[in-house]
Structure formats: C-alpha cells, structure tokens
C-alpha cells in the first residue's frame, strides 16, 4: 500500500446502519418499523432472520466505539432509527431513544472520532407506512419534523449529516419489485415514493439548516452502467434507461432541479400518472448541498430486453426493458457482485464531467465486499479477497482525485458483520467478524490492513 496516498485532510471512516446492528427492537420505547414487519412475514428474509439480535450494538456500543478507536478512523457513519426517536413517526418524541444517540455521539467524540449521522437508512415507523408510507406526501413532512428533532438534540456535536441513504432502495426495492420492506409491488408507487423521498430530503435539509447544521447532503447508490454491446444502439438505449432508473432520477432533480429527459422512455405509460408532483417541489429538492455521498459496490452491464411483465397493469417500476449481463472475467463477491474497481474512478470522474460546478464535493459513503469469511482454526479471519477489493477501490478513489475530482473522504462498509436486509445474517461485509451466538467480535485481516493505511496516511500528512 506504500504507493497509495491521499491528500491531507482526507477523511477515512467506517459505516453501519441502525437496523443492521442495533438489535433491541423493543427497548426503551422504540416503535415498530417496516423492517420489523417485513422480517416477520414468512419468506421475505433468508432464514427467517430478523433485526434481533443483530450485533446488540444498542447495548454493546462502547465496545464498538473502542473498535473504531483501534481502527483509527477519523469518522464513523451511523444511522438514527426514526422509530426510536419518534415511535409512531408523527406523535410524541421518545426521549430515551434520543438519549441513546447522545451517549453514542459523546462516546465517539471522547474517542476522537467525528460522528457522521444518517437520518434515514430504511427503517420507516410502521404507523407511517400504514398511512401510505413513502407513497404519501405527508411522510416527507413527517421526515422533516423528525430531522428537526434529531438536529435539535445533536447539531452542536455532529458535523456531517446525511438525510437519506440510498433512496433508490427505499423506492424501487420497497415499492417497486418488493424485495425490501414494505414489499409493495407493481404500478407507480415507486415513482411516487422516489418523489416523496426527494421532497423529504429537501424539507429535511431546510430543518437541518435551521438547526445550524454545517455540512449536510444525501447518499446515493449510483451505478456505473455500460451497454453489453457498445456498438448496439438498442443496448445504448437500454443503458440509458438503467442509468435513468438508478442515477438520473435522483441526480437530475437534486443537482439540476429538473426531471430526467429520459424518464418517458424509461417508464413509458407509468410516467403519465405523476399527479404527486407539485409546483415548487423541484426548488425544494434542488437546494444546495454541502456534499454528495456516493455508495458504490459493483458495475452494471446491461442489454436491451423486452418487458419482464407483458401486462402493463401488472408491471412494476423496475421493469424498464433492460437485463443485466454477467461479466465472466470478473471475480464475484459472496453477493455475486462483480469486482471491477476502476469503474468507481470512472463513475466519480463521470459525475464531475456531467455536472461540473453543480456537483458538490463528494464522499464515498459506502464501499466494501461481502465474503464468505469465517474464523480459521487459530481464530483469525484472513479475508484477503476483501483486502484486494478495498485496495482496488481505494486506488480508484485516488485515481479520481488525481483527475481533479473533489473527493473528501471514504467510508468502508462495514465496521461489523451485520443484518444484510433480505439476505439476513448470511452475508458478511464487516472488517470485524461477529459471532451472532456469542456476540464475540474478531477483527479480520482487513481491519489491520485498513488501520495500517490510515496510520500511514496520518504519518505522511
Ligand atoms: O448493507 C447495505 C447497506 O445497508 C446499504 N448499502 C449497501 C450495503 C450492502 O448491500
């Protein structure tokens, strides 16, 4: 790693999310979220796994802060569980829930680690879902109220705030193909959800500003999309539809205050039913941000394909006439995701080239790999594939910096093995192995590798 260097002040971090690590889903007044409900429905999550026990972080957080201190990160990215803070999403604030995050933030600061707080990493209070969830405009307003409550308590101690994490998953997996909570399928709900998530982001940003937050943005899981046959106009059009669904539906409203020109071709007749859009919304959505978070794992290669569902009345909003093509040359992680690190450099450079001065500074707010790594007979976890993955992607970030892209930091996903949504506990992304039966934490080889990278960076800057 001696040749891998970053500018002074570059932030190295690690991330987690509330539902994936906290457990304690009924403790101290926490209300149910859509993920509690979804996990309880048979067949939704592999192995019938739920948010219990996760990593018991709610109780073991001091141990996890100590791990972060040993890792040497500048910053820790975590999310606040909305149903801990406002259990029904719109009623009374639960002081005990806020107290937990106050303790965590104070513990991080005492350990010399900068907290980076995400307000929404998918755990919508169930009661709001019962009223329509992100299909309903009202949810955007409830989200802004929640943002104001959290910022009222923590704006003085948390420098970096993210409104939403990966709204694509909330909209298109939650209300499109139904793979994520709340598991809704078919028709326009995903497009309404996408719009209300964007509106919620804009309204929450106003609330954060009013509370004095200095650095605020959003984290998007943006795709690097290539046509399977670069000479095929049909594949090129399919790639644009994929980019529209994954990237442009977010970046165009946020950064340019407009909807993507390619939305009509992408969604066909579904796009005609946009009665949820109101005058003035785009101005709220496009309010300037201090950073854009980019979450990146794997590229997408797509070819033109017919609709998966021929009946338009049954079609969901992820059905956009493209199909993914597997890259036979690439190694694939335990998620079966192709490892092609330089595509991250291309994505970051491409964003700069496409948006120019409209693009705020970037952070890579998530990057990492799930590997089938378990402790060996000597108790150590030698995750060499993860180290190669991280090394490659950090080189891609360094390449983007060398090309003049303003990237301010990198957060490894994840500090701990954790609950990987519909895959349950079977997929392990952590730099620290978690034995869920004993809650024993074992730092993997990648933990030592990342610690070394950070400490060399400190010594040289
Ligand atoms: O674990 C997730 C995280 O919650 C959101 N981004 C992708 C990660 C890996 O799938």
Please characterize this protein's 3D structure.
The protein is globular. Helices cover 39% and strands 14% of the residues. The model has no long low-confidence stretch (mean pLDDT 97). It contains 15 helices and 13 strands. It starts with 10 loop residues before the first strand and ends with a helix. The chain has a single domain, classed as Alpha-Beta Barrel (TIM Barrel). With 461 residues, the protein is an alpha/beta fold. The strands form three sheets. It has an eight-stranded parallel barrel, surrounded by four helices. Strands 6-8-9 form a three-stranded mixed sheet, with helices on one face. Helix 14 links the parallel strand 10 and strand 11. The longest helix has 24 residues. Helix 3 runs parallel beside helix 5 and helix 7 runs parallel beside helix 9. 5-hydroxymethyl-3,4-dihydroxypiperidine binds next to loops.
Task: Provide tags for this entry.
14% strand, 15 helices, eight-stranded parallel beta barrel, 39% helix, TIM Barrel, 461 residues, binds 5-hydroxymethyl-3,4-dihydroxypiperidine
**Distinct ligands:** 5-hydroxymethyl-3,4-dihydroxypiperidine
Mind describing the biggest β-sheet? 8 strands, parallel, barrel
How widely separated are the two ends? Answer: 15 Å
**Sheet with the most strands: spatial strand order:** 1-2-3-4-5-7-10-11
Q: State the helical fraction.
A: 25-40%
Run of helices and strands? EHHHEHHEHHEHHEEHHHEEEHEHEEEH
What's the total number of strands? 13
Provide the domain count.
1
- Please identify, by name, the CATH architecture: Alpha-Beta Barrel
- Under CATH at level 1, the class stands as Alpha Beta
């Amino acid at each position: 790693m001696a040749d891998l260097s970053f500018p002074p002040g570059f932030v190295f971090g690690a991330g987690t999310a509330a539902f994936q690590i906290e457990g304690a889903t009924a403790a101290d007044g926490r209300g149910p979220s859509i993920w509690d409900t979804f996990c309880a429905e048979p067949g939704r999550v592999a192995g019938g796994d739920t948010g219990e026990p996760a990593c018991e972080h709610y109780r073991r957080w001091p141990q996890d802060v100590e791990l972060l201190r040993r890792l040497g990160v500048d910053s820790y990215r975590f999310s606040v569980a909305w149903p801990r803070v406002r259990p029904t999403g719109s009623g009374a604030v639960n002081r005990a829930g806020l107290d937990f995050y106050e303790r965590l933030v104070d513990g991080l600061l005492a350990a010399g680690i900068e907290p980076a707080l995400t307000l929404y990493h998918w755990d919508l209070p169930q009661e709001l879902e019962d009223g329509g969830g992100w299909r309903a405009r009202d949810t955007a307003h409830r989200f802004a109220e929640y943002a104001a409550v959290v910022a009222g308590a923590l704006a003085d101690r948390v420098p970096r705030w993210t409104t939403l994490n990966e709204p694509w998953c909330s909209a298109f997996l939650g209300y499109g193909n139904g793979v994520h909570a709340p598991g809704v399928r078919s028709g326009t709900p995903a497009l309404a959800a996408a719009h209300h998530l964007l509106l919620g982001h804009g309204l929450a940003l106003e609330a954060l500003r009013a509370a004095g937050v200095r650095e605020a943005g959003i984290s998007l899981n943006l795709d690097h999309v290539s046509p399977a046959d670069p000479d095929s106009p049909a594949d090129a059009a399919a790639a644009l539809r994929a980019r529209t669904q994954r990237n442009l539906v977010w970046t165009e409203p946020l950064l340019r205050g407009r909807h993507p020109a390619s939305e009509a071709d992408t969604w066909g007749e579904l796009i005609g039913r946009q009665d949820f859009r109101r005058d003035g919304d785009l101005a709220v959505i496009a309010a300037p941000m201090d950073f854009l978070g980019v979450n990146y794992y794997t590229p997408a290669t797509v070819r033109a394909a017919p609709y998966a569902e021929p009946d338009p009345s049954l079609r969901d909003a992820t059905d956009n006439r493209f199909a993914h093509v597997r890259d036979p040359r690439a190694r694939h992680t335990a998620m079966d995701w192709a490892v092609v690190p330089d595509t991250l450099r291309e994505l970051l450079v491409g964003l700069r080239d496409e948006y120019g001065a409209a693009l705020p500074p970037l952070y890579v707010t998530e990057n990492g790999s799930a590997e089938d790594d378990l402790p060996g007979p000597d108790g150590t976890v030698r995750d060499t594939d993860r180290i190669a993955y991280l090394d490659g992607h950090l080189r891609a970030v360094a390449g983007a910096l060398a090309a003049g892209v303003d990237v301010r930091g990198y957060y490894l996903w994840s500090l701990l093995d954790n609950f990987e949504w519909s895959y349950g506990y079977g997929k392990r992304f952590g730099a620290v192995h978690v034995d869920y039966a004993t809650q024993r934490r074992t730092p993997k080889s990648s933990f030592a590798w990342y610690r070394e990278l950070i400490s060399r960076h400190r010594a040289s800057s």
